[in-house]
Amino acid sequence: MNESSTENNIQEVSKSQLKREANEILDLAKKLLAMPEATLKGLPLQSDLREEVEFARGIRSHGARKRQLMTIAKLLRNRDTTQLLEAINNLDQKNRQMNARFHHVEAWRDRLLEGDDQDLAELLDNSSGINVQGLRQLIRNAKKEAKLNKPPAAARKLFKFLREADEREPLPPL
Questions:
Q1: pLDDT per residue as tens digits for the range 65-94
Q2: How much is the pTM?
Q3: What distance, in Å, lies between the first and last C-alpha atoms of the chain?
Q4: How many whole angstroms from its chain centre is CA 163?
Q5: Which residues lie closer than 8 Å to 32 by C-beta, 6 or more apart?
Q6: Could you point out which of 57, 58, 92, 97 has its C-alpha 20 to 30 Å from the C-alpha of 115?
Q7: From CA 158, how far away is CA 171, in angstroms rounded?
């Protein structure tokens, strides 16, 4: 009787599930190799795993690099990777937030260049601490450059100006 009750408690894992888990670990190992050095230093990695990743970065031969990737995946399989996955997800989330802010600033730049004084007034009403005279001059210069088909140097300066303003105080939603 005891044998059958223990057999019922054991759940079989399908081959497909095992392959999915192995592929997830392999993808994690690939992400570790592709990360910049500064980002990798901030992750919670054990010293032996960190050494293996650094060693793999120095390998130029495709076959040897692939074998080292499998070694890293094997080390990851034998460990609890929840902290590491959380740290990587937090990095990804921060990158997405930075990209969203970047696109928001771009949208404001484009709106100011294509729009009229109404758009500028809306920005100035909802933001404090912006140098109005400098902003107007940058907009005027960028429009002039666009009209003369010159490189967008003033538009870049306008973007930089808006990005700095956004860092001090977030720009209003569009």
A1: 999 999 999 999 888 888 888 888 888 888
A2: 0.61
A3: 69
A4: 18
A5: 40, 43, 45, 53, 72
A6: 97
A7: 14
